[in-house]
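The methods section describes the discrete structure representation at length, but only in general terms. Since the whole study asks how a given chain folds, the encoding of that fold should be made plain. An entry of this sort, consisting of the sequence and the corresponding backbone structure tokens, reads as follows:

. . .
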Amino acid sequence: MKARLGILLSGRGSNFLAIHRATVRGELAAEISCVIANRADAPGLLKAREMGLPAYFVRTRGDREAYETEMAALLEQHRVQLVCLAGFMKILGPVLLRQFAGRILNIHPALLPAFPGLHAQEQAWRYGVKYAGCTVHFVDAGVDTGPVVAQAVVPVLDDDTPTALADRILEQEHRLYAEAIKFVIENQYVIDGRRVMKKK
């Protein structure tokens, strides 16, 4: 049986599209059950509708409990088992964290715990690190603080720009996210404190 994924996004949805490609190619035993965006004009939302996927706009302003309750209801309606944040630019609150505890993943364009929050690629470039990358992690109440599932390393080149570095990191995001989702939906892991480890 295929795992049912729910995608939350705010922008172009390139990671959503990479996940979708992995499901179509059979690399992931999963299907995207619904896509929810907090911007009505998000390109990822428009693309999901073009693809015929159940796709919704939920305005994330005002009462956070109210809009998270609406999002949670949509995810439950579509029997979502794993929620995947794909460029969703809002911090999740207690409603979603409680209802989908241990079942929410995010991808961040840095090697956490370094450079959490916004503009991580530019943060890394300006800091002068020699290696950047991306991280898939479980979502908790903090900002990019949940247990790490997987990481990919991207060297920072001497002639890099923030844009060039971000583009190379994004290539790795598209590969890594699908691999991490597969790892989670196949229940290949155990969590010991903050450590996510492969089952023996």
